[in-house]
Design a protein that fits this description.
The chain is an alpha+beta fold. The protein is 46% helix and 24% strand.
Length: 345
């Protein structure tokens, strides 16, 4: 009767992502080993020295495989624990009864409660969720526990132990047994408070910008590198008789602006994209109210890599100023004419 080789069961893969496949392979190998042991016992009619030796080999192999499996499982768990504890994210696991069964060091640091304070606690009893978001959080948790969803991604306001509010992104996954029953839920939490503050500040600035430009009498427009309008304020309607919507996404030519205006404006915009330097230009434009004179600043707007991402134009109606200048020139000319006449006379 052949001996049962040690290689009957494959060893666990060192790659933790292959752990489920390795466990399945070990299960098959284990069942095969049990069959071989049963066959050995069945075929043994008497405990001869040869039979005893074969049985001894079977049990020795079984014992060795158990020890090897135990060692590798410990190593795998140790590696997983290390990565979980060393993760920049808070790693939290709670069972099917909502009791917290794992609370990583980063969770302690992020939320303030120690592992000893938190383990075994029902997360509903903790003041960790903002009251205004309890309903949505409970809905997500219930779906995970019911097994109707196996994963979720969400963002919530959370409280720390000292009562501070932080904004966290939560990545959760439900673990089920062979029967499909949820055993536990593993959650990874990332503190995104700084990003949230930055986004809020950007939104505030955008609101402020919108308030200013929408109420400005200057014609303000933003262009991309294809010379298309990304934005135009309401003042353009007074100057052209066209609504902002008639410009958005179009070039000046596509918006049917005068040819000479298109050539002049496009030339300056292209130059600013190329040089990254602000330019100024003055031009006349026929508006529904008559011919107007404008002074325009062409301003580069830079991306994070310091390249010119967009160009902003701010055109101000200086018609009255030009009229005053013209009147001054006329007055000066008249004054000189009078002075010269007196000198000659």
């Amino acid at each position: 009767m052949p001996e049962i080789p040690l290689t009957t069961a494959p060893l666990l893969s060192p790659n933790l992502t292959d752990l489920p496949q390795a466990e399945a392979a070990l299960k098959i190998a284990w069942e095969e080993l049990e069959k071989q042991i049963e066959l050995t016992i069945t075929q043994t009619t008497g405990f001869s020295s040869e039979n005893a030796r074969q049985l001894s080999n079977c049990f020795a192999t079984t014992k060795h495989l158990c020890q090897e499996l135990k060692t590798q499982m410990k190593q795998a768990i140790s590696r997983l624990d290390f990565h979980a504890d060393n993760s920049p994210m808070a790693v939290i696991e709670w069972d099917s009864r909502c009791r917290i069964i794992h609370w990583s060091p980063q969770a302690e640091k992020m939320f303030g409660w120690t592992n000893a304070e938190i383990l075994g606690q029902d997360w509903h009893d903790l003041s960790i969720i903002d009251e205004t978001e309890c309903e949505s959080v409970n809905l997500i948790a219930n779906k995970l526990l019911a097994g109707s969803e196996t994963r979720s991604v969400s963002c919530h306001r959370n409280y720390t132990k000292d009562g501070s509010i932080i904004h966290c992104e939560w990545y959760s996954s439900a673990l089920k047994d062979a029967a499909g029953k949820v055993i536990s839920v593993l959650s990874f939490a990332v503190d995104v408070s700084e990003r949230h503050r930055t986004q809020e500040e950007l939104r505030r600035r955008e609101r402020d910008f919108s308030t200013i430009v929408e109420n400005s009498t200057d014609v303000i427009a933003r262009y991309d590198r294809e010379l298309r309008h990304l934005y135009v304020n309401r003042a353009v309607e007074t100057a052209t008789g066209k609504s902002p919507a008639e410009f958005t996404g179009k070039t000046n030519q596509e918006s049917e602006m005068p040819v000479h205006f298109c050539h002049l404006f496009d030339e300056y915009i292209v130059k600013v994209f190329r040089t990254g330097q602000q330019e100024t230009v003055e031009f006349e434009f026929l508006t529904p109210q008559g011919r107007k004179h404008y002074h325009c600043r062409v301003i580069p707007e830079f991306a994070a890599d310091n390249s010119v991402e967009t160009v902003l134009t701010i055109a101000r109606d200086i018609t009255e100023l030009k009229q005053v200048e013209l009147q001054l020139r006329h007055s000066e000319a008249k004054f000189r004419s009078i002075v010269n006449s007196n000198l000659i006379g």
